[in-house]
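Hi, here's the filled form for the chain we discussed.

Project: internal
Contact: R.S.
Residues: 238
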Amino acid sequence: MPTEIKPISLPLPLRMGSVNCYLIQTHTGYVLIDSGGSGNRKELLRHLESAGCRPGTLKLIILTHGDFDHTGNAAYLRRAFGSKIAMHPGDLGMAEQGDMFYNRKQPNLLIRTLVPLLTGFGKSQRFSPDVLVSDGDDLTGNGLDARVISIPGHSQGSIAILTDSTDLFCGDLLENTKEPAIGSLTDDMPSAKASLEKLTGLKIGMVYPGHGQPFPMSHLQSKNPSSPDGEPSGIQRS
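And the returned structure, exactly as it came back:
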């Protein structure tokens, strides 16, 4: 069972908000869910050190998806802390090639040119994961009493981590920057809605999103109840 969850909020480039990482202390050491962007490495390391997480104690880095602001420090932490990296194979090209649009709708040329310049996700940040996870995988063998849930929508390889104590780490499927909602940067809305419907059938207490504050799952459902036409709870029409 996790003994402590430490949210770590790191600023995004150009004052575009912040991104969350979550450090979980277990009986065998630490697990980090997402790693922030490479531009925030010093700040992330300060948070890890203050929590008592040092080289040799960070057992696993779980990436909810392949975006630079979630994976930017994973390769460095593996080298410096001896950690293993786990992610879904659906986002492999993002991590290995540094292509944030690897499995997404292709944007215009200007955006495709600007994103690599803004992200700082260069060759030294690219990596191949040590562990590939998929829907239903049990993480107990990695020191975390939790399982993997596949939640495509933000990206094809997006996953959530649901602990035995009903804490859900959902990456960018959901956000809470203004209020709990489906992430504003959703690539495939029908898939995201199906993923949210999948989550509503599970026992979930607190939700820990990639952006914004943690919130009770019941708050999302109560603010957006199911509509008469069968729209899944917790979503807004696109």
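Let me know if anything looks off before we file it.
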